[in-house]
Design a protein that fits this description.
This protein is mainly beta. It has one helix at residues 2-20, and strands at residues 31-37, 43-50, 53-61, 67-74, 77-85, 91-98, 101-109, 115-122, 125-126, 131-132. Strands 1, 2, 3, 4, 5, 6, 7, 8, 9 and 10 form a 10-stranded antiparallel sheet that branches.
Length: 141
């Protein structure tokens, strides 16, 4: 019980100090959302930056307002999911990144939604043979 009380008191002290402005835990953190628009007014992209480096989600749209890519970044490098879409909005490509290295499955899709190719990575190194399918789902190799 005493251990929980000490933890509670410490949390309260930190909360009070933070709210009084005695310390600023977010000092020197320059986080912003940057946006750009096409000449017709539709959103072109919306990206999260921290200290002038991509950090967080990044969305890109075509001139018609349809999402054409989504990526996640940490400190300027891809980290997380990266997706590219056809202008129709259907998924074209997906890949996972781990601190700028492909890690996991990289998949391409035909516009009809059928998988086109699959290859696996582990921290940037190919660990499988590429598999390809035609638009009807027939295995090519």
């Amino acid at each position: 019980m005493l251990k929980n009380q000490k933890l509670f008191v410490i949390c309260i002290i930190i909360f009070i100090i933070q709210n009084c402005g005695l310390i600023d835990l977010w000092k020197n953190r320059n986080h912003e959302i940057r946006k750009s628009h096409y000449t017709n007014g539709t959103l072109e992209y919306e990206s999260s930056y921290l200290n002038n480096k991509l950090d967080g989600p990044s969305y890109h749209y075509n001139v018609g307002g349809i999402l054409i890519s989504y990526a996640e970044y940490v400190n300027g490098s891809p980290h997380g999911i990266w997706k590219i879409f056809y202008d129709s909005g259907k998924l074209k490509y997906t890949c996972s990144y781990f601190y700028a290295h492909k890690d996991g499955e990289e998949k391409f899709y035909h516009e009809n939604g059928q998988m086109q190719s699959l290859i696996k990575y582990e921290y940037g190194k190919v660990i499988s043979e590429i598999i390809r399918w035609d638009e009807n789902g027939e295995l090519l190799y």
